Amino acid sequence: MSDVENVVIIGSGPAGWTAAIYAARANLNPICYIGVPKQNPAPVLPGGQLMLTTEVENYPGFPEGVTGPDMMDKFQAQAERFGTRIVGEDIEKCDFSQKPFTLTTNKGTEVKAHAVIIATGATANWMGLDNELRLATSGGGVSACAVCDGALPAYRDQPLAVVGGGDTAMEEAHYLTKFASKVSIIHRRDKFRASKTMQQRIFDAPNAEVIWNKVVVDVLGDSMIEGVRLKDTQTGEESTLDVKGLFIAIGHTPATNFLEGSGLDFDDKGYIKLETRNSQTNIDGVFAAGDVADAEYRQAVTAAGMGCQAAIDVERWLGDQGLA
Q: Domain 126-248: which topology?
């Protein structure tokens, strides 16, 4: 079965590239389908969400910080150094009903594989405003991850805003209270969806305020955010809130549409379910790593760790099957 790949990695980013590095060093001759650029509504690029991140200061080994694209370039170069083959196509369909598995690309090419690692990540949900997306992609003070960006010097001792009303929004806002002069939580309703405990942390924070019944209709600023334009959901009245940072916390969507009908199990949020303490899915020989299977942490370092786990799990699984 020389025409069957040992392992196909779907997706790039920290999880995909780390899986590729480990699989290649284990002589598994991996092939990585990194996808093609899209707009959804923000750009979705090979390399994942870090391709839209200007400064990364919390990844070990980069004491002076590094841009997200530079980091992903280094990950890719390391994967290529050990022989990873890279294909700039999307996998659009997966047939896991029989072995070897059959994957179909956007060009109609069928790829056979003994094992598959899914590392397609998740995309942040955005409001879809033109200036929101422009400033988010240019490092202009709009972000979808407070834990990633909130401690940057540009946000310290500044008024910041968070959009959202669930647990994630509460967590993001509470984290930002450590650095900001003031954190405003903007919510379209008059009560949060978040748990009572998470809400209480915000209500108890001296530098946090809640702006009820408001939606953001525009993000103000040229090179850097200067404020947001708000609209009252009950009266329609508009107002301006001056902020130096805006964090969108209205959820993430895992990139799993191409897995419809594949037989994989998903949780209630659409993330791939994993077996306890490893990267194995409910389908023998199919593994997942990174944000596509992680609704909780969503960090580059945790995604990389999951990519490592997946590659090691694949190596062991192939060995147990007598395939490698």
A: FAD/NAD(P)-binding domain (3.50.50)
